[in-house]
Amino acid sequence: MSTVSRRDFLKFSMSCLAVAGVSTVLTGCNPFTGPQALSPVVFSHGVASGDASQTAVILWTRALPAVASQASVTVGWQLATDPAFTNLVRSGQVSTSADKDFTVKIDVQQLGAGKHYYYRFVAADGESRVGQTRTLPAEGLAPWKLAVFSCSNYPAGYFHVYREACKRQDLDAVVHLGDYIYEYPADGYATEYAERLGRTLAPDNATETISLTDYRKRYALYRTDPDLQELHATLPWYLVWDDHEISNDTWHSGAENHQPETEGDFFVRRAAAVQAYYEWLPIRPPMGEESIQIYRSFQCGDLASLHLLDTRLIARDQQLDYKDFVDPQSGAFATDAFRQAMGAERALLGAEQLQWLSGQLDASTAKWQLLGQQVLMAKMHLPAELLAVTDYSTLPAKLQDLTAAKQRVLLAQQQGQDPEPTDLARVSQLMPYNLDAWDGYPREREQLFATAKMLNKPLVVLAGDTHNAWHSVLSDQHGELVGVEFATASVSSPGIEKYLSIAPEQAAGLAAAFQLLIPDLQWCNVHQRGFMMLDISAAQVQCQWQFVEDVLTEDYRLGTAHQASFTG
């Protein structure tokens, strides 16, 4: 760690005074008080940038006091157009304290559009590493290249996919669709290999995250990962939460993994989770850091609008559950009651957010409308008899049987013949397999699709959450196409292959069966971890799914990539 040079001191002496989380502009500068005002700190968790617009960007670091008894610290920051910081554009001074977990966020304003910048933080006894960021172009159709991630579970495996993105020289930004952390305890979900991998939870953070201290420590652990630190320092990020930043299967007033009797008031827990999220991630909350409103839009010139949505905290009604419609005595499924519940007015985005999104779509003049959100929007409807399977060891045979029936139906239809009625009934009686996704909120999905059609704005939907990779068309209730969905595999969380105990050699067959049996599904990968790279141009949105073979070994190989395009 180098010391502050005389050149740095002279630059700082002309800088502006800032405070954590407050916007900085080119006017109203206060004189820098000198190097004695800077505190000795440890930049323990790297640097990050995010929510870059045409004229502003958030810069982030954590500045832990070198002297443990210090209640607050002061550091400097610099933004330049070159890595040597000879062309200094902006600089300032910022204080932080234990009240913010010693995190620092600077909202640097009045920057040039479409510019590449370097930034760093400076303490009394040294500097942070140098980070890179860039603002969005104000106009034009220059290509925009994004890396898209979801579901990064520290104990479940190495973050190799972050490392792979760092190797790319052509990326402009990162989009993270949620589950940046997981709330589970040390013996919880996907922790069975943690000890062998050296990725266990700290003893003082080994229980489920409930308090503000719990969530802060969990972020601190995740941010020690070198691949995550590297990707944060390399590119600006655009983030939105899913459920595990709070608790599994969160809805507006509770969560599947929250028990009020033993874990207290859900809203107290939610407030703690949101505070830690805002502290630790380089985002600009549109309604301030006291609000759970996180949805916001970014404009990349005339090329694309990126609308980041919330499908968890603000308005989501509690998820339906198939088991609630099964008679405990007879085992009969209450079909009429289920259909009535599915047809009810149930919110996922909620009226206010949906109205905001409609306004954003209407106002946007960009070529492409990207929705960055959490759960699958496409219809993932499977033959109903598959949902009755309880012994997953029988699933491969059941899928093979249904696949054969679907092939017979298709062949008969191609030949102008009537399919065998039993075959047709088996493959036509479809039900959604995941009621936590948009499939559990079909009326609101149709409202969104109707808006997109009315505005003639085809949607490019980005999704995560499932831990597997999916490419689907988006069709409304009339069978008309309204867009496409590209869904990313997880960074490290296990997917369907684990839940269904599918051996690797069976994975291709399972994927092929899904593609045949689910009408809107075009392709899927159900057994590998990975991320997506979006290459957005005036002509098309091209998605490439990149996979890694193993997240349980430090040495790994890349899996076979897959590519798809959307031309509107």
From TrEMBL:
Keyword Nucleus: no
Ranges where the Phospholipase D N-terminal domain occurs: 45-135
One Pfam family this sequence matches: PhoD_N
Gene3D superfamilies from the UniProt entry: PhoD-like phosphatase, Purple acid phosphatase-like, N-terminal
Superkingdom of origin organism: Bacteria
GO molecular function: hydrolase activity
Keyword Amino-acid biosynthesis: no
EC class name: hydrolase
Domain PhoD-like phosphatase metallophosphatase as annotated: residue spans: 146-545
InterPro entries linked to this entry: Metallo-depent_PP-like (IPR029052), PhoD-like_MPP (IPR018946), PhoD-like_sf (IPR038607), PhoD_N (IPR032093), Phospholipid_Metab_Enz (IPR052900), TAT_signal (IPR006311), TAT_signal_bac_arc (IPR019546)
Keywords from the UniProt entry: Hydrolase, Signal
Signal peptide: 1-20
EC numbers on record: 3.1.-.-
Name used for this protein in its record: Alkaline phosphatase D family protein
Annotated source species: Alkalimonas delamerensis
